[in-house]
Amino acid sequence: MSKRIGIIVGSLRENSFNQMIANTIPELVDTAEYEYVSIANLPLYNADLDHGDGPDSVRHYREVIQKTDGIIIVSPEYNSGIPGVLKNALDWASTPTKTAVLIHKPAGVIGATPGAKGTILSQQQIRQTLDATLSHVMPAQKMYISQVMDKIDSNTRKLTDETTRKYLQRYVQQFMQWIDQVQWLNKQ
């Protein structure tokens, strides 16, 4: 049975490098179904709005995540940390506390940046937030893409650097195995 993977991009920028990386994932591992989970229309988190199913955009966002076998977050680093729009999206997915869609959800984290150090600090914060939501973040495997502007084709909006494509393919394949491990853990 094919796995259903949700891809969340932590940038709203039209020509986002991270969106270009996300666009490449389905062609590298074509044994799964992929769905892009938009965070663009989510309101700022406000507990006053978080009752029942929440606003329509939040309800739809949560439903999409709920239907996935796992999520991959592809995010830049802003000011040495997690982008505000992504943190907001993760906050909406973390409630209601006992039935949140991220509880026990397998998660992977990828990041791309024009800089030389990758998205190390952002990914640490994303992982910390996912840990707090009781998500199962893939351990040990990290996917930092530095100097991304030299590794993409802005016309096709995809990753073209062969070495990075191989690393990304291996990361996504390992994530598929991680989903199987988490499903086994959740049954125990």
Automatic annotation (TrEMBL):
Domain NADPH-dependent FMN reductase-like: 4-147
GO molecular function, one term: FMN binding
Pfam families from the UniProt entry: FMN_red (PF03358)
Record InterPro entries: Flavoprotein-like_sf, FMN_Rdtase-like_dom, NAD(P)H-dep_reductase
GO cellular component, one term: cytosol
Family (UniProt): Belongs to the azoreductase type 2 family.
Protein name as catalogued: NAD(P)H-dependent oxidoreductase
UniProt organism field: Paenibacillus silvestris
